[in-house]
Amino acid sequence: MTDNEKLAELLFGDTDKTVEYFEEKYPPRQLPEGARVTRFAPSPTGYLHIGGLFGALTDILTAKASGGVSVLRIEDTDKKREVGDGLEAIIDGFEAFGLGFDEGVTGIGSQKGDYGPYIQSERLEIYWAVAKRLVSEGKAYPCFCSAEELDGLRAQQEKEGAAFGGYYGKWAKCRNLTYAQIEEKIKNGEQYVLRFRSEGSEDKRIVFDDIIKSKIEVPENVIDEVLLKSNKIPTYHFAHVCDDHFMRTTHVIRGEEWLSSIAKHIQMFKACGFRLPKYAHTPQIMKIDDEDGAKRKFSKRKDPEAAVSYFVKEGYPKEALIEYLMGLLNSNFEDWRRANPSADVFTFPFNLKKMSASGCLFDLVKLADISKNAVSVMKAQTVFERVYEWAEDYDAELYRLFSLDTEKAVQILNIDRENPKPRKDIAKWSQVKDYVSYFYSEIYEENYSLPQNINARDACKIIEAYEKIFDVDDDKQLWFDKIKSICAPLGFTENVKQYKQSPEEFKGHVGDVSTVIRIALTGRTNTPDLHAIMRILGDGEVRTRLARAKKAFMEEI
Hints:
By secondary structure, this protein is of the alpha/beta class. It has 23 helices and 16 strands.
């Protein structure tokens, strides 16, 4: 037995499973030719970021487009930064926007798939088996340097003008310890981490093909990276290599901030004897800074929309946010959508190579436009159900009002809907209470502000004339004919075209007359179909509001 093999037994004597055992347990997947296996691997250290949703969508689309498999893996090895509801926030964020993975973690305490467990803290035996083999092959070693010693090392590197800091070369104090020295330190109870023995050279570079960013050249890694911490928990780098191999990941899709780690990951894959997956580094999502107009990264402190929960709380329909992100992912998505207006978004032929290599600009205004389009084509019952479900969690008052008469709520939401040219007033569910407020006396706020071309005296006369002829049972044509009938006696024309030709001859046109009535009943100059509004308000409420408006206008005269 060599010293390296003896060292492997000394460090991992209680590890009975081998790499060969796990190779057999997690065999190559039986998938169609060209099928891609992707994984999204967040850490439960905070909320789900919009960039995370962007990345997860990329993974899912890549797998679906190739007939492959998408995996949700939770990387929970950094226990110091983990938050109590971190996993729940991740799962809830995906569920809220309809994203589902083929394998992986599905909830608190639940997983699906044959390549699990899908939580890193439950995969320790795998990491130890690989680490044991690396030690036996002389590719890893224990390091006993304390935190103070490492601080001193960095200070010495700065003093000597080292090209970069880190544990490497002559600075790697424990790299060449003998078996006897190591054995003695362990017997003395000294703490240690397990380090990778890098064979990289400072004057050499590696070249690899990134699917999104094309050919990239980076320096070889020379740092003896930590593989296992003192508690035998793996670092991100080592766990990434082991997990992606045994989950048989073919394509590692991740943010471009990980480009700086690519050299060490390629090196570790090769040292472990694992097949290297293909890499695709996605661009970061940017926004325009409100202060200086420059592009910048999202900020957890400045930007509430950095969190996926923001879009949930605001009530953006899941279809709209996904639709918008699709446009950021592939520039040809909008053309595809125009050609396939009713197709499932996940049937889009997504292509990683059509992703932008530079940053994507997130635009809330464009998202709102897409969202309005999405809401406008929904059935009234669907909108009601979505709003009602959202309000139960985020708007108790709206939930209560809708609960009083759900049929009325559906009628309100159905005004100017389900027709060839539906209105596009609602972008998110948080706007609905204001949108419907004038139907509910509990939240209705009167506002009798008139357009500049209408004075209070004329408004009062319009209301007086309309009170005499109003009938809630009139059909739409008769209703409008009655409004036109009071125009001429009051100095208005029922013909808008005539008014535009000779504005000096009239006080206004029929649109101005109906606007006064609209203001009296809703406090607004712009609403959906006024006839439908009046039918829902009912005879008594309409007459009450007309009377209050007339009184308000009289007080202004």
